[in-house]
Write a structure and sequence with these properties.
By secondary structure, the chain is mainly α. It has helices at about 5-10, 15-30, 40-50, 55-70, 80-95, 105-125, 130-150, 150-155, 195-210, 230-245, 260-270, 275-280, 285-290, 300-310, and strands at about 165, 170-175, 185-190, 215-220, 225-230.
């Protein structure tokens, strides 16, 4: 592969490349389309799956088809008025309520942390290294994920050599690339007097003694660490398991965005303005940020004020 092709290849993330490849295969093999495509054939393709696939999935399929045409030097047929009108009509006739991750609120985090601290204490008493490692790792995942507002895919890409910890002061974490940034981003979080992510990560690293590799590797039933980082979906399993075991209601509804949404709501209710929240979490688009923050219930405030005045 030439240097130019290598850099062009690096400009597209592996996940995007895989999803685009699957989308093209679906268009050609599953539906029987031909490439290069016409606007008419793409409109028929959209209509064929209008009641079977979500609009977001159809948009992703269009993006893949558009990219194929651009890469091959053909005009992009997905931008024609006909295709745009068909997609708009699908949205009108097949509306879907957006699904939002259930947020892990601060009191949930406290409940889970108390449970995990008990689990850690018991593992040390019983001298069970596998249980100890699993509990220390999961505690670090949940506290760091909440206070840093990380999604599961970001947690999965953290590496020990990119983490700098000063106990009781703060933690600095570098991600070589994010969902929107190829240049790399450094995230910092201060130590806290309560539910501290810095000390939780420090205890975890002291236990495993690694100087490089994934910050959160898989752990076997015998306590052996895996060579690769946990898959993003595994973080969802951790959240659901530890939440359910700790007695958090609806723990099975948690997703990879639950920690971020919980933090965003905590920050908003604690007086952070939307600009500060965006800068801390790393959002570029205010609409993305607002999707994570629940609107304030002013009627509840009114009821509480009315109740207090009558006591």
């Amino acid at each position: 592969m030439s240097d130019i092709n290598r850099y062009i290849h690096a400009a597209t993330r592996d996940n995007t490349r895989r999803s685009y490849r699957a989308a093209i295969e679906h268009f050609e093999v599953e539906w029987g389309g031909f490439l290069p495509a016409t606007a008419d054939s793409i409109a028929k393709y959209l209509a064929a799956y209008a009641d079977k696939l979500a609009v977001s999935t159809l948009r992703q399929r269009l993006a893949a088809i558009a990219q194929w045409h651009i890469d091959q030097g053909f005009p992009d047929p997905t931008k024609t008025p006909m295709v745009k009108k068909v997609l708009k009509g699908i949205q009108a006739l097949h509306p879907v309520q957006p699904k939002q991750a259930k947020p892990l609120a601060l009191h949930h985090i406290e409940t889970i942390d108390l449970y995990l601290q008990h689990k850690i204490s018991k593992a040390r008493t019983d001298q069970c290294s596998s249980l100890l490692r699993q509990a220390l790792r999961d505690r670090a995942i949940i506290l760091l994920g909440f206070w840093r507002g990380f999604r599961s895919d970001e947690l999965s890409r953290l590496r020990v050599e990119h983490v700098s910890i000063i106990r009781d002061e703060g933690i600095s974490l570098y991600l070589p690339h994010t969902k929107t940034e190829f240049a790399g981003v450094t995230y910092k979080t201060p130590a806290l007097k309560w539910l501290c992510p810095v000390n939780a990560c420090h205890e975890w690293l002291m236990e495993i003694g690694l100087t490089e590799g994934p910050l959160f590797p898989s752990i076997s039933r015998w306590g052996h660490l895996g060579n690769t980082g946990m898959h993003p979906n595994s973080f969802i399993s951790v959240l659901r398991k530890e939440s359910s075991d700790a007695g958090v209601i609806d723990g099975d509804r948690l997703s990879g965005h639950s920690l971020r949404r919980g933090f965003a709501n905590w920050a908003s209710s604690s007086g952070w303005d939307i600009k500060t929240i965006m800068e801390y979490v790393g959002w570029k688009d205010v609409r993305s940020a607002l999707r994570y923050v629940d609107a304030k219930d002013h009627f509840e405030e009114f009821n509480q004020t009315l109740l207090s005045s009558r006591i």
